[in-house]
Amino acid sequence: MKCEKLKTNKIDDTVPYMMPFLLLGTDYLAILTAQKIAMYLRQHIRVFSIYYSMPDVPNMYFYFLVPIVFIAFLYNSHIYVNRMPFWEVIQKIFYAVVLSMMVCIMLMYFGHIAGGVSRLYVALSGMTAFAFLCIFRYILKKILFKFNILSEPIIIIGAGKTAELVVRQFSNDTGFGVKVVGFIDDSPVSDDLPKQYPVLGKFSEAESIIKETGVKTIIIAAPGLEKYKLLELVDKIQPLVKDLSFVPDLIGIPVGNIEIQRLYDAKIMMLRVSNNMSRWYNKLLKRTSDVLFGNIIFILFVPVLLIIAIAIKKDSDGTVFYNAKRIGKNDKEFTCYKFRTMYEDADDILRKYLQENPVVLNEWKTYRKIKGYDPRVTKVGRWLRKYSLDELPQIINVIKGDMSIVGPRPYLPTERQSMGNHLNTIKENLPGITGLWQVSGRNEVSFTDRLLMDTWYIQNWSIWIDIVLIYKTVFVVLYKKGAY
Predict the structure, then answer these.
(1) What is its EC number (predicted)?
(2) Of 47, 171, 394, 427, which has the fewest CB atoms closer than 10 Å, so is most exposed?
(3) pTM for this structure?
């Protein structure tokens, strides 16, 4: 399908400009709803205290000042005009809500109504505002994108493996909401993309294709393109579009902590990558959160730990715990606590089973796990593994300081040789009960991919990534994804 066929179906370039206004209206309704819910909770549910009669909040504050403050900070975070991953949107909403609540408190103070407003109401307003802003946006975008309404039309220049990654990200993330009109490439490398989308033409035809289709958002996903060709391409199409993005030939480097520095006189751009894990305040923050939440989880799950211990003891002979050595921070070995899920002679059972099953032997070499039936695992052990309950005792490791709640996988000492250069990065950090590998397939992820994921996590660490991974872990465990 060539670009000539699209002449009669030129993109309506007014459609993308409607999205910010629709999002703004949705956010306004979300903020009003949050205030109403917070007021109801404070008055009628008796949250943490006796019945409280809320004084009348002036309409000026309720319907105008408070929403304007929230929307101003939301606008400043660029979530109305930039399409970005939904988790990044949630992060920006969180920061905007915190700053907005601080300003609203100041407005109430200077407006002489702060004394009559409950502090609990203010706290509830912040929490409900964050929740409803996220929920309303998510529902709105789900509806719009399901029916292909107000999607941003884009053309991707390049139809190779990089373009496949870009399209996959767009397809799996509600935050973007884009519609791929087609691709421009001289000779597409991808086998799948030309089957799903039209190839509109060659690189040399990019300028005319963009003019004819009216598409205002272009992504150059051809990192192998020669420098002079890339510059020539940018010079030709940038005046014709609203947004132009390109994927540089830097795939695999840390992206979470990159800052752009512009050297205007030299006409160059520098990318600065921060090592967040090396900052003392981030180490303190991570350790403090581990100790706080580790103790809370331990106290809440003590009855569960006791019930599981009794079930293991009754199911098979042997100890309740399986205490094994793992590689810890600074390459020091530590004892990792887990509930025993295998028979005591598991090593002998494994050796015999692999000798009798060559197919399983190849699987073991790739994943260091056995998919499906594993003769080493007890009846109770199978149930514990499905819900990752066998790892609950690792909370003790977290409290002791041997592990973190989120971190790289705790590797076996015998795996040192197989870890290669990844060991240098991984050993500088505490292993975690959960991590990127846990929410990305668990046991279905190959050993090599686990190493790549753990290295990526460390290089891109932020407290927000930890929060996201903990949230995702809950659903992965509940749905038993990748568990055996």
Answers:
(1) 2.7.8.6
(2) 171
(3) 0.74
